[in-house]
Specification:
By secondary structure, this protein is mostly helical. About 70% of the residues lie in helices and about 0% in strands. It has 3 helices and no strands.
């Protein structure tokens, strides 16, 4: 998916990406969320 064509500015692009990610995360199980959380911590994106 090419988000650069769909959005005229970076702020709108970022907001749409965040909404899509939040929607997807809300559908995951606790185990799946824990796995993602662990991955983000090990990569330094979360504490």
């Amino acid at each position: 998916m090419d988000f650069r064509r769909r959005f005229s500015d970076e702020s709108s692009r970022k907001e749409e990406l965040i909404r899509n990610i939040e929607s997807a995360l809300s559908k995951l199980s606790v185990n799946e969320l824990e796995a993602i959380s662990y991955d983000l911590v090990t990569k330094g994106y979360m504490e």
